[in-house]
# Entry
Amino acid sequence: MFIEGRELTFKHNIPVTSVEKYWKGLEEGKIYGTTCKNCGAKFSPPQADCSVCYSSDMEWVEIGGEGEVECLTEQHSFPAGFEFLKEPYTIAVARFGDFRVIGWAREKISVGDKVVAETDKDETGVWKVYFKKA
Amino acid sequence: MRVGIIGVGCSKFGVREKTIQELAFEAVKESLDDAGITREDIDISVVGTSNTRGYELMPAVPINEYCGFAGKGPIRVEAACATGSAAFFTAYSSIVSGMADIAIAIGVEKMTEVNTPTSLAVGGRSGSYLWEFHQYGTTFPGYYAMHASAHMAKYGTTPEQLAMVAVKNHRNAAKNPKAHFPKEITLEKAVSSRYVAYPLKLFDCCPISDGAGAAILASEEKIKELGKEAIWIEGIGYSSDTANVAKRSGYTGLKATVDASKMAYKMAGIENPLKSFDVACLHDCFTIAEIMAYEDLGFCKKGEGGKFVEEGRSDFGGDIPVNTFGGLKAKGHPLGATGLAMIYEAVKQLREEAGDLQVELKNYKALTHNIGGTGHFGWVFILGV
# Structure
């Protein structure tokens, strides 16, 4: 025998003030990482504080050019929140110089492929990175 | 100070019509009976549960109450899928610190109170929510699938080799009545199953299970005073890695495994891991995870994990039988319970109480390897007689 529990919904307000440039950048077709001005450590996704030397003097760097796919998966099971997708979707990590970037693939790609990154929003209005073959 | 294990318990794993308290009770009762002590003898309890799916949001106290430990702790511990190992270490530490003579580590997880899409979403949030799940819908199978894609591309690891891990572990689980799936599968069935997260298929993935494990630890002095036999903790290693998958140094192995095993091998004086253990419990939440673990633990060279399983070297009669009770793959993987279910298996094997699944003992040493997330946490324990 089971008893149905009372419903509880979380809808979090996530503060992104210190990395606002990243989110605004996606809307302009740009992908940003950060570099620590003190020690040179590079961060993608970006962060406002350096985990290496503890400086908070960071510089925004645009990530672009040609990347190489290092790993990927095609998701056939949809997690809650992604019911809007009708077809399996591909998540990949590609390396652009010193930065690795996670994104969705626009087309069929393989590990080792050269890709370029662009930005767009999905059906729920969330901006993100998309890869396509270079 | 030496610390020994005097009692172990493990519930039946699977879809269980039991609350988190009742599940924990099953494992705790067995461990107390096994140790031949009562609940009054416990100085402190450690409750390990990730519990990101259950309705009881802060379950340590309800569990402690139900097991009759009110007033003795509890310390709640969370390390994703390695929670049981973190609880084991915390219990060990409470004894080494001198604060307790006898401590119990309880690991428990209720995973089937929510549906599969919810469970996938919760698991997918175990990386770094804002940068991964929020934007890209990452899932736990997906993270391991990404590693599989890199391993297959670089080393030519095949879907058949992945499936061989599942076939072996199901064969072992078939003789373990506590397993979620105590049944054998064929290679054909495994390789022809549907994709969950390419390149991983249904039979490359562990089930979503409820379950509990428990271990009772005591100081050497206390063990002598009680006149008990113990299995000794000879090596401990821990590590971790970045939350963000994009911040990792590579995808063909888990650095947390490499680093944790080095620490444990040093503490236990292990020079040749392949020749040192009679049995190993490896973290096989997905088949690729067991293959990477062979390599990262030094059982074989990097890239040769696929061949290692294919040649039967991790099977009964091989160099080192791995996951003799069925592994996470077929025994089940209730997150908080898993690390302690590994301790249960290692202790049963070292005491020669494993019945049909008993390995031959030569070194009288066992290894457990428990990963949280995709190498977000890494724990290795070495037990000896």
